[in-house]
């Protein structure tokens, strides 16, 4: 994928790599462009997989890059159902079993996710859920700030170095 | 399903759907702006109720069936999964339901006074068009570019091939005595931040593409952008190019209420809809697609859609048509749009192929579009006066028409500022008067400045 945004490249090394993606049925991309810029400004290199990402494309990209974080964004209202399917597939890959994976956006068609719906996503394996009607991008930035690069297994550091 | 409803009879004269284009043009000549919702529900009963309520609204309306996103990308297993667990979809899954189900949704509601259009967003629409033909739904929307670049990762050449085949098949509806109608989605590209001249150009080119493949009844879309004066100029340019280039007299213009980040307050949402309605009336457009107070948050209810339709109809009745724009005035938007259209048409007599070449060379280029076949060099910004302008033209054939590139570093907060320009402008009065009740959160929160 090319040409999305001019990457902001501050001098010095990146803190790591983040995969930004959406789910297979979701074509919205402004959310992805925005998240890419935001995460780059937090010091990470971003791999933006673009719209309508099939599960297998996401899994392959994660296997290849061993990211420090996977950010799934969906706003078309199918994110809850698709998120449950995608997290199962990601967690089923041994090397991605403990990679931090978060999901956010407008995940259903009724305006907000109930506590039960968010609980379902969390117990399916997400590390955090940023539902549009109950969270802000500030909370997300703080979450990214808590990721410790040092906690990454060594072999992964080499891949992104 | 409604007991006693009859399935559509193919042979009976009365059961043949009217030409959507002729219907809208006749209503417009009678002095009415035709208003239409964006509406789609997974449950057939709700879908039917939505069509019935649209038809009964105090407004001159046409009906909409918007399809869900799984159907758009051909992920039919996920439709089954959702229907079996009772999860709600963001539209009506027309391919999955048996034709009798859709027949019953329409029965007794669609008639010569209430045509129905299907709206989707698929670059692989073969199954969708087959479902339309099965139920004799003769009005839909799309285009090889506008249903591809903003809607996924299908390669453009594949989308062009699919749309050639589907358009030609759709044109054959005429053999059963039914006039097929196609609306371009090209006047919307990504919903926001695409300068008006390119919206006009792509809308015109997609209409030419439809005509090249056998369609005679077309409509051309234009989505409201950031500045009313610039929008009026754009619609005048669109109408002028239609008159100059389209090989059919059966065309009309449809205005979409703002397709980008929407105001969060009810008051802001209605003021923006009012402005779109006035744009439609003063520019002599025949049809308007409305947005509702729920736009910034979730799929709207039937009642919210009806309220928006009736509000628009009320505003339209009070607004004064602007009269035809003077044909000789070469506005900036007209000159740019004309240059873009000519730049594409000269690449190949086959418009589909010309589209492919144009995007490869950057003769068309959609700002911020992530699709792999987009050139990705053109950039846009909102000027101090609210007009949407080119920040850089990449390889668009606009040299001499547009000033030098502005260099701006892309930042998350800068992008959000441009994306929420309209939202802020229309929410501001409501927020300042304290009328704003907390509805959860605003959709866009300014990001914390990055540390890097
Ligand atoms: C522009 C737009 C489009 C464009 C998209 C072009 C493109 N390539 O991006 C077009 C016109 C093509 C489009 C199409 C559709 N759209 Co649309 N679209 C919008 C609109 C108007 C603005 C979205 C936008 O650009 N926002 C700007 C970006 C930067 O912000 P954002 O996406 O809102 O995300 C913010 C937060 O959610 C958050 N966030 C998002 N993801 C994540 C993830 C994490 C981890 C975190 C921390 C935060 C976060 O960050 C952002 C900044 O605050 C919204 C309504 C609105 N908001 O006003 C509808 C909307 C998102 N669309 C919607 C729908 C349903 C569709 C369609 C299915 C058509 C339809 N039935 O109406 C199709 C999609 C087809 C598909 N296959 O998915 C619905 C979704 C309904 C729901 N969830 O209940 C909305 C809400 C409109 C509505 N009320 O019906 N759309």
TrEMBL record, chain B:
Q: Does the record bear Isomerase in its keywords?
A: yes
Query: Mind telling me which InterPro entries this protein's record contains?
Result: Glu_mut_E
Could you list this entry's UniProt keywords, alphabetically sorted: Cobalamin, Cobalt, Isomerase
> What's the protein name?
Methylaspartate mutase
């Amino acid at each position: 994928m090319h040409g999305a945004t001019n990457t902001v490249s501050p001098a010095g090394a990146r803190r790591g790599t983040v995969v930004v993606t959406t789910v297979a049925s979701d074509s919205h991309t402004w959310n992805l462009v925005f998240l890419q810029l935001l995460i780059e400004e937090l010091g990470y290199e971003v791999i933006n997989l673009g719209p309508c990402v099939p599960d297998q494309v996401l899994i392959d990209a994660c296997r290849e890059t061993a990211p420090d974080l996977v950010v799934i964004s969906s706003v078309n209202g199918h994110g809850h159902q698709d998120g449950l399917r995608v997290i199962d597939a990601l967690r089923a890959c041994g090397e991605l079993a403990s990679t931090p994976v978060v999901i956010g956006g407008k995940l259903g068609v009724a305006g907000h996710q109930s506590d039960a719906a968010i609980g379902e996503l969390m117990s399916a394996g997400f590390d955090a859920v940023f539902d549009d009607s109950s969270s802000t991008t500030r909370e997300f930035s703080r979450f990214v700030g808590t990721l410790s690069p040092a906690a990454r297994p060594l072999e992964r550091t080499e891949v992104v170095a | 399903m409604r007991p006693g409803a009859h399935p559509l009879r193919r042979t009976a004269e009365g059961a043949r759907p009217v030409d959507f284009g002729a219907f809208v043009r006749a209503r417009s000549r009678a002095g009415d702006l035709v208003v239409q919702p964006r509406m789609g529900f997974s449950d057939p009963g709700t879908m039917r109720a939505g069509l019935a309520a649209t038809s009964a609204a105090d407004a001159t309306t046409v009906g909409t069936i918007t399809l869900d996103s799984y159907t758009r990308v051909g992920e039919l297993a996920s439709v089954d999964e959702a229907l079996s667990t009772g999860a709600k979809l963001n539209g009506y899954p027309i391919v999955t339901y048996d034709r009798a189900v859709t027949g019953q949704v329409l029965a007794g509601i669609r008639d010569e006074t209430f045509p129905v259009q299907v709206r989707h967003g698929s670059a692989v629409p073969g199954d969708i068009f087959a479902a339309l033909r099965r139920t004799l739904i003769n009005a839909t929307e799309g285009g090889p570019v506008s249903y591809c670049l903003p809607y996924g990762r299908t390669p453009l050449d594949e989308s062009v091939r699919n749309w050639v085949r589907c358009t030609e098949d759709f044109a054959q509806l005429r053999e059963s005595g039914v006039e097929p109608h196609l609306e371009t989605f090209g006047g919307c590209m990504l919903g926001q931040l695409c300068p008006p001249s390119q919206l006009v150009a792509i809308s015109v080119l997609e209409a030419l593409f439809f005509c090249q493949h056998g369609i005679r009844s077309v409509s051309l879309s234009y989505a409201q952008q950031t500045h009313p004066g610039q929008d009026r100029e754009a619609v005048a340019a669109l109408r002028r190019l239609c008159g100059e280039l389209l090989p059919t007299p059966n065309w009309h213009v449809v205005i979409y209420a703002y397709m980008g980040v929407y105001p969060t307050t009810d008051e802001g949402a209605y003021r923006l809809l009012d402005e779109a309605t006035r744009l439609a009336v003063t520019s002599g457009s025949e049809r308007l697609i409305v947005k509702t107070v729920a736009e910034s948050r979730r799929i709207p209810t039937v009642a919210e859609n009806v309220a928006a339709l009736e509000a628009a109809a009320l505003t339209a009745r009070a607004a004064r048509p602007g009269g035809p724009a003077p044909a000789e005035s070469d506005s900036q938007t007209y000159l740019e749009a004309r240059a873009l259209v000519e730049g594409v048409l000269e690449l190949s007599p086959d418009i589909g192929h010309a589209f492919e070449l144009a995007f490869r060379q950057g003769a068309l280029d959609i700002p911020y579009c992530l699709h792999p076949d987009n050139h990705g060099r053109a950039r846009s910004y909102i000027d101090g006066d609210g007009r949407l302008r080119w920040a850089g033209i990449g390889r668009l054939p606009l040299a001499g028409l547009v000033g030098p590139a502005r260099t701006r570093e892309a930042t998350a907060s800068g992008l959000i500022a441009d994306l929420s320009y309209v939202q802020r402008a229309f929410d501001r009065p409501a927020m300042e008067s304290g009328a704003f009740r907390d509805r959860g959160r605003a959709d866009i929160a300014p990001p914390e400045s990055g540390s890097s």
